[in-house]
Amino acid sequence: MRINSVNASTQRVVNQLSALSASKKQPKLLNLCKEDLIKHKTITNAWNVYQRKVNEKRHIQLNAQYKSIHEAMEDLKQTSPQLYALANKPEKKKKFPLDMRMPTDYPPTKPWVYNYEPSQKRK
Amino acid sequence: MISSSYARPLRYLGRYYSTKIWSDFSKRSETLKLIDPKYEKDLLQGINPDQGPNSLVQPDRRLAYHSPVAIDETFKLAYEYLEGESAKIYAKIDDKKSVEETDRLLVKAEQYNPEVLFNIENSPTQIDREQPVYRKYLQEKWESHDRMLSMQRLEQLHVIPDTMPTLDPKVEVKVKFPHNTVLEFSEWIEPGTILPAFAVDKPPTIQIQEFDRVAENSLYTVLLVNPDTPDLETNTFKTTLQYALTNVPLSNSNNVVGTAKLLDDDFAKQHVAREYEPLVPEKNAQLQRACLWVFRQSSGEIKASIGEEDNFDIREFAQSNSLEAIGAHVWRQQFDRSVNQVRQEYGLPNGRVFHRVRKAHPVIPAGTSNVV
Question: In which family does this protein belong, per the annotation (chain A) (predicted)?
């Protein structure tokens, strides 16, 4: 018996894929005429240009936010060194919960673990 | 481009880019327009499903062709977006910008223009090489394959360092012998090909493609040397000069030294420093390399004539005339049955016949201790 057994439908897909050769698993080449290929390329180019602009904008905003945080902390350092030390105090026991899921764009396949128990060590 | 009497079916999107930058040729060059007008309707307005795309030749394939769903509508959106971006870049270009900066912006403004993309795919030989965007695409194509191949051949055949010490290729050098009637020999030659003597018995056509903007009538030197001429006195090989062109004015678009120029008496008198003499390898001599080097003349015109000395020192020549090697090409030749005829054509003496030797290297004199 397999150690990491998956459910039946997934196993079937895995079996089917293992029977196919690697070349069959490649995405299909676009069988387009010259004009449509250039149109396709243009659409892709436009999307890339748009995404680049969006990313640049986001990057600029994040930079500004970071700069603002930095300036606020510098300000705090000047005005009240005690509060600055308190804000920067390392919290040894308080860590990011290791059991927490990574933030993703989509919900997980298993949204909630009902019978969750933290590991013995960290109890 | 489309007459007003054109009955426009509903499916077509019409000419949606009028009064936009990519259809305005008052400031932009006409050469950025689609070269082959028969594709224009299919590319910019959509393919008529009753006729099929123009690029497919067979009628049954044409009729069976289906465009992807909603490609024309999406293309319209993409076109308008990219055209808008291009207009913003054009607005940045003014007289205060340097030439390099202007070229960079021109590339940026035109690199996504579908007409430009179609031209470079469909008619790469007819494009205007004065346009920086076309040169950029040509350079990308060259760097992706031909530059690597030519460097591989130059290094594997030891053109580097047997002739010049090294090469940082800046230009694409292409060579062909258009007097041939056989397609195999009349096309552009792949570096390192072994050619028969009859295929090279007229001077080659040389194309030197610069990718950066160069000044009009920049001067170039082209040298063809054979580093494998047997030298029996010293039991080694010497380098002979087979062909030399000096002070050749070339530009981005006027970049071919071909038959038309060579037949012009003025050109021949001014620029042919050594008449072309093809390699005529003798029987049982090893494969000989015809190494063609292209130099930029960094300090103006070359005044000194090339001497008739037997052993041509290409490195010394390049250094004394401050020539910068920017490209090279190589083909090989060996004795074949057309060699004697070529010798007669050029009035050369009959070739010698060497003994067959096991190794193509010079015989090491007796008494040398390191011979096993």
Answer: Belongs to the mitochondrion-specific ribosomal protein mL40 family.
Question: What residues of B are in contact with residue A48 (Cβ under 8 Å)?
Answer: none
> What pLDDT score does A122 carry?
53
ipTM above 0.85, yes or no: no
Q: What is the pLDDT of residues B200-226, one digit of tens each?
A: 999 999 999 999 999 888 999 999 999
Whether B353 has a pLDDT exceeding 90, the answer reads yes
Residue B313 confidence (pLDDT) above 60: yes
Judged by CB atoms closer than 8 Å, whether chains meet at A32 and B68 is answered as yes
Per-residue pLDDT reduced to its tens digit, B88-120:
999 998 888 899 999 999 999 999 999 999 999
Count of domains forming chain B? 2
For residue B85, which residues of chain A lie inside 8 Å, CB to CB? 49
User: How far, in whole angstroms, is CA A116 from its chain's centroid?
Assistant: 24
Domain match, B101 and B162 both: no
Measured between alpha carbons, how far is residue B52 from residues A36, B58, B232 in Å? 11, 10, 69
Q: How far apart are CA B121 and CA B22, in angstroms?
A: 19
Chain A positions in Cβ-Cβ contact with residue B49 (cut-off 8 Å) = none
Report yes or no: B253 and B228 within 8 Å, Cβ to Cβ: no
What pLDDT score does B296 carry? 95
The residue that leads in pLDDT, B257 or A113, is B257
Residue B103 located in a structural domain: yes
Record the tokens describing residue B71, joined without a space.
């490609």
B59 lies in the same domain as B187: no
| B182 occurs within a structural domain | yes
Q: CB A36 to CB B68 under 8 A?
A: yes
User: What is the spatial distance between Cα B109 and Cα B82, in angstroms, rounded to a whole number?
Assistant: 9
CB contact under 8 A, A35 and B47: yes
> Do B161 and B124 share a structural domain?
no
pLDDT tens figures, B162-183:
999 999 999 999 999 999 999 9
Q: Which tokens hold the place of B33?
A: 């327009």
The CATH number of the domain holding residue B319 is 3.90.280.10
